[in-house]
Amino acid sequence: MTPQELKNSILQLAIQGKLVEQRPEEGTAEELFAQIQKEKQKLIAEKKIKKEKPLPEITDDEKPFDIPESWFWVRLGSIISISSGDGLTSKEMDESGTYPVYGGNGINGHHNSYNVSKRTLVIGRVGFYCGSTHITENKAWVTDNAFITTFDEDRIDIKWLKFYIEYLNPRKKASSTAQPVISGKLIYPMLVSLPPVAEQKRIVAKIEELLHYIDRYEQAWSKLEQFNSRFPDDMKKSLLQYAIQGKLVEQRPEEGTAEELFAQIQKEKLRLIQLGKMKKTKALPKITDKEIPSDFPHSWKVCYIDDIAFVTKLAGFEYTKNIAPNLTVTGIPLFKGKNVQNGKLVLDFDSYIPEKVSNELPRSQISKKCLLTPYVGTIGNIAIFDGSFKAHLGSNVGKIELFNGDEDCIMEEYVLYYLRSTIGYQQLTKYKKATAQESISIDAIRNVIIAFPPLAEQKRIVEKLEQLLPMCEQLK
What we know:
The chain is α+β, with helices and mostly antiparallel strands. It is about 35% helix and about 15% strand. It contains 14 helices and 21 strands. The protein has helices at about 5-15, 30-45, 75-80, 160-170, 185, 195-245, 260-275, 305-310, 315-325, 355-360, 410-420, 420-430, 440-445, 455-475; strands at about 70-75, 80-85, 100-105, 105-110, 120-125, 135, 140, 145-150, 190-195, 300-305, 310, 330-335, 340, 345, 350-355, 365, 370-375, 385, 390-395, 395-400, 450. Strands 2-8-5-6 form a four-stranded antiparallel β-sheet. The chain has a four-stranded antiparallel β-sheet with strand order 11-20-17-18.
């Protein structure tokens, strides 16, 4: 139950006469109502309030619930009278003014004059705050965004009236326009279960006592809601972090070491360089112990992305010279930054090039399984392309093509999870450029430090994450 639902339940008990006991010595609300009518007629005669049209009689069919015998069903308009406040521009308000200015949302400023001379209940009458209630100070100004309520203060407790009108929620009666408005015609007929005045005061005291506990409940409830809303994402982050630190699945000595895999990867990298399929990149400095982002198992290998993958993009001059003049509506699709969203590929292409043009730019072709990541825009947004069709790099997206030869040494899925982890993301974004649109260079991606385990352990990690991560999504 939300705090508001709990408060509504308390108000429901209050208006049904179930929140405090009834006391015979306090008289009846029917007697009270007669006194209120007498006072109302006096105010009309003194021209302090206007005479309203008679309200319809209350039928038994209208009464929504049973009330105590000492209570009396009345229409709201028979115990109050409302009039609109007076217009006041913001320029006419003075921060150093003597009297507070009340609108539909409470105090809006101060003014050096007042139009109510005693504590009064105001009701917002227009806009977002229509139906809201506030109790003014003894002397105040009420704007034309709110109603001034006149009633018999000796027989109607102002706080009780505020709680009751809050429960009635006059906003539900507002005109259904772009700017909701309520009027006396809409709220005067609303039914009120009237208790004796002494009981009104005891109801108010009990509500205020309980509201104190509701406030405490709301604080705890809000913290719980925040925790619940964060929990699925926090759990995903924790699972990814545990996985890439070697804490999600066990290490098995019989599976060898990632150092052995790394040697195979370097052979494949050298082969590709010798075949001219890629250029030899500049040697990166040795990774120091201080630079290693976490304590990884001894059987794992720590290296650069550049050591295990071909990282590239479409050069600007290649786009200008080869791509832009040859754009078509069919052919080889261009992956752009917008095609990678929320860790998934969006296979909705708006640009294509002929296959002949794509073959002229083999470095930026996408012809096998790889990872794609934007380097302009949302940094850290990575997805796997499964290699099921031919494509080409377009603008603002790079590819990470792992050096897997005839036998896989490292899984794209594992690299994806690593880069989506907190450690991986920090590595990926540590060289992020502080511009209006965040970006990183392809060299920055190559310089990311990564740790990976033996292949069998990679598979167990990926399998476990693919089992657990969907459960986190189900918690949302």
